[in-house]
Specification:
Radius of gyration: 15 Å
CATH topology: FomD barrel-like fold
Number of strands: 11
Order of helices and strands: EEEEEEEEEEEHH
Structural class: alpha+beta
Strand content: 35-45%
Distance between the termini: 41 Å
Bound molecules: magnesium ion
Largest sheet: 7 strands, mixed, barrel
CATH class: Mainly Beta
Strand order of the largest sheet: 1-2-3-6-7-8-10
Number of domains: 1
Helix content: 10-25%
CATH architecture: Beta Barrel
CATH superfamily: FomD-like
Length: 173
């Protein structure tokens, strides 16, 4: 299977305080979500970043300012990421997990292909799989290879399992 997002390139290991820009695309390469982050840590596999509420985000549906402070966990070897969202001044969090191709950091740019499926995890332990309909439609629209479909479905199960077992970075009440 070939896809530009899967091509393994030399990756940057970020340093704390570094500013990076996430550029998530859809499978055809069209920009989908562009969000600025500040790096907290990076061990070469797990990249942890912060986003401050109200900082402009560019989305394919226009500019968006999230009301949530976000701590975001990106693993270079996983097909999902985890956004820990909390309102400023409020510790209660909601976790929003995106199924994507494994992210790559080159210079100040983090990139991946968004694969539609999302998993929302609430502090009470409620876990919900979202956007299955969109995933179905996009399988046909973009012609996702079978391997991508399988990896994406597996990733949604894995992150739901991780949340259910309260594994890092989840901390359910
Ligand atoms: Mg989605």
């Amino acid at each position: 299977m070939y896809h530009p997002a899967m091509e393994v390139k030399e990756q940057t290991v970020a340093t704390p305080g570094m500013r990076i820009l996430l550029r998530a695309t859809k499978f055809d390469g069209a920009a989908h979500w562009v969000q600025p982050f500040r790096v907290l840590s990076d061990d070469g596999t797990l990249l942890v970043t912060d986003y401050r509420a109200r900082t402009p985000i560019y989305t394919s549906r226009g500019e968006f300012r999230s009301p949530y402070n976000s701590r975001v966990y990106f693993w270079r070897d996983r097909w999902y990421n985890v956004f820990r969202l909390s309102r400023p001044g409020c510790s209660l969090a909601l976790w929003y997990c995106n199924v994507t191709t494994p992210p790559q950091l080159q210079g100040g740019h983090l990139s991946y292909v968004d694969l539609d499926l999302d998993v929302a995890v609430r502090p009470n332990g409620c876990i919900e799989l979202l956007d299955e309909d969109e995933f179905e439609v996009h399988q046909r629209k973009y012609g996702y290879p079978g391997e991508v479909i399988a990896q994406a479905e597996e990733a949604a199960l894995q992150v739901a399992d991780l949340a259910r077992s309260n594994g890092f970075p989840f901390a359910l009440g």
